[in-house]
Specification:
elongated; 2 domains; 329 residues; 12 strands; Rossmann fold; seven-stranded mixed beta sheet
């Protein structure tokens, strides 16, 4: 090898040793897809809650910082801020907005009629005005619904199996969330027929939440049915305040039972989040939200917190324990 060839090889080796390995190089900015994430709670809570979504996106090949970038926007449990935050998010011009709970999706739809929106939970999106029909959404929104008809009657039935003496039932939720309206509408005639009293309190931020629980305590409710996402996002606070008065809580989402609620009955949220990621994947690959049918739940979970029941001095019938998907000891 002559001197010139040796020099060329040496320079080539030097350049190669300075360059980063191919696997560590970021994709060109133009190839990174941008997705806005609009969620009602805090960053810490939402990152934990939405973990199944982000995991499924990675499984589908969407690697953050390489093929996809997320513009995360959180309302910090102040739900009335969602419309303003949605409008701000739209100015960043994401290709798609992921708004998991229905309340966030409704705020996003108010902000844009063109950017595709995907939701992951909620009830009756047709009545909420998000889509024209489940089979043919017809606009810029699609997603996964938690339930079409309210599960509140089933939750009340389960509660009465454990606490048949309950007469005064508190219903706690967010007035901005259509699920509270739906649950109240189906519970009113049911509690009347059973000779019960339904006491409704609303909250859309942490201060109102504490005040609503205090009011229910003053009304001497025998149990609280906690609905809408605010009750799930503030679940630790909910259990802290109700346990002082030994008032059992029935959750509309599994995390409420996991932190000390008496029971919960709902669609599997992790399953819904994973399925919503699959819809996002399809849209990023060219599908249109108007053509992607809204998906319905495929799995429901009854979770009973036996530890809480014992602490409250309640006996859970063996037949109910046998029907439970999860029993927390």
């Amino acid at each position: 090898m002559n001197r010139r060839r040796i020099l060329q090889v040496a320079i080539g080796v030097g350049v190669a040793s300075c360059a980063p390995p191919l696997w560590s190089q970021q994709a060109p900015a133009a190839s990174i897809r941008r997705v806005g994430v609009l969620a009602p709670s805090t960053r810490a809570k939402e990152e934990a809650t939405l973990k199944p979504f982000f995991e499924e996106m990675r499984r589908l090949g969407w690697i953050e910082g390489h093929s996809i970038a997320y513009d995360r926007t959180y309302a910090d449990d102040r739900h009335k801020d969602l419309p303003k935050l949605a409008a701000e998010l739209v100015t960043h011009k994401p290709e798609l907005i992921y708004a998991p709970p229905q309340i966030a999706a409704m705020a996003a739809k108010q902000a844009t009629q063109t950017i595709p929106i995907v939701f992951a939970t909620g009830i009756d999106p047709v009545a909420a005005g998000l889509v024209t029909s489940l089979a043919h959404p017809g606009g810029n929104v699609t997603g996964v619904v938690s339930v079409i008809d309210s599960l509140a009657p089933k939750r009340l039935e389960l509660l009465r199996e454990i606490l048949p003496t309950a007469k005064r039932i508190g219903l706690l939720g967010d007035s901005l969330d259509v699920r509270l309206t739906n649950d109240r509408a189906v519970l009113d005639p049911m509690v009347s027929a059973l000779g019960l009293t339904l006491i409704v309190r609303e909250a859309s931020n942490p201060v109102e939440f504490d005040a609503a629980i205090a009011s229910l305590m003053e009304q001497r409710v025998d149990a609280i049915m906690a609905v809408t996402s605010i009750s799930s996002n503030l679940r630790e606070r909910l259990i802290e305040l109700t346990s002082r008065r030994r008032v059992p809580v029935v959750g509309s989402l599994t995390p409420v039972a996991e932190v000390g609620g008496l029971l919960s009955y709902s669609a599997s949220i992790p399953d819904q989040l994973r399925r919503s990621a699959q819809l996002v994947d399809k849209l990023l690959k060219g599908a249109k939200p108007a053509d992607l049918a809204v998906e319905q739940p495929s799995k429901y979970e009854l979770v009973i917190n036996l530890k809480t029941a014992r602490a409250l001095g309640l006996t859970v019938p063996p037949s109910l324990l046998q029907r439970a998907d999860v029993v927390i000891q």
